[in-house]
Amino acid sequence: MNRLVVMLIAVLFLAPLPSRADQQLHHRGRYTLHAGDVFVINYRYTPEFNQTVTIQPDGYVTLDIVGDMKAAGLTLDQLHNEIVAKASSRLNNPEVNLTLKDFEHPYIVVAGAVQRPGKIELREDTTALQAVMLAGGFSESARDTRVILFRRINQQDAEVRELNLHKVTKTSDLERDTGLQPGDMLLVTRNKLEKFSRVMKATNLGLYFDPTTIPF
C-alpha cells in the first residue's frame, strides 16, 4: 500500500475534521418537503378524510377537505398548521396528525475523473474529499489539484468554486477540505485545461453531469 493511499485512509477514517471545515459544514435544519414526497394525513375524529398524499411536481397537493394547497418548501409542522387552519372552516377544532411516509434523501453528485460517478446519498456531514472517495476515488487521468464545486444559488444559477484536493491529502492541510451541502455537484477535471466562470447557468450543467442527476 503506497503512502498516498495510507494518507487518504487517515483523512477519511482517522483524522477529526478541523475547525475551518467544521465551520463550512452545512448544518441542516428541519426537513422541508419536496415534489415526490409522500405523507399520511389522519383526522382523529373524522377518519373519513384520512389520506395518503404525494406532492405533485408543481409542489401542490389536493386534500379532500381543504382542496389544493402548496406543500413543497414547508416543514411538516408548517404544513400541519396550514391544514388545521384551512380545515377549521369545515371542522370544529380538528385534530390532525401528519406522518412523512416517503421522501427523497438529500444527495450530492460527483462526476468527471472518478471511478464511480453519480449520486451519493448524504447520511451525514461529508467533505469534498470524502465524496470523491465514496465515488471510488480519483481515476488515473484526474487532476486532484482542480476539482470544481457547483453550488446552487437559485433555480437558474450555480456558484462555481475551484478546490485543490491534492493539498487536502497532506495532514497539515486537512483544514482546506470543504464541507458539502445537499445538492452540491463536484466535477473532477481531467488532464486538460477547462475554464469556468464564477457563476454558471443551471441549464449548462448538463455538459458535465448526467442530466438525470442534476438536482436543480
UniProtKB/TrEMBL annotation:
Residues annotated as transmembrane: none
Domain Soluble ligand binding, first and last residues per copy: 109-152
GO molecular function, one term: polysaccharide transmembrane transporter activity
Domain Polysaccharide export protein N-terminal: 30-100
Keywords: Signal
Signal peptide: 1-21
UniProt protein name: Polysaccharide export outer membrane protein
Lineage of the species this protein comes from: Bacteria, Pseudomonadati, Acidobacteriota, Terriglobia, Terriglobales
